[in-house]
Amino acid sequence: MTKLQESDSVFGDLDDMLPHANNSKFLLVNIVRKRAAQLNNGAPALAPVAANSKPVSTAFSEIRLGKIPFERTKN
Fold this sequence. Notes:
Strand content: under 5%
Helix content: 40-55%
Radius of gyration: 13 Å
């Protein structure tokens, strides 16, 4: 078994997704959490996914593709 490099991730390069979350890792995680919950509750996927894909993986894919809009409403 090989060790994962620091930039390797099951979800892709997370730093590339930060612009979709106002450059905040905290916001990115919360957007993924909320979207994964929606998917778990039956919301349709907005991006092509593998049959055995889990909601968190699907949420990351949707964010990476720009399918999940984010707008900060509070300062």
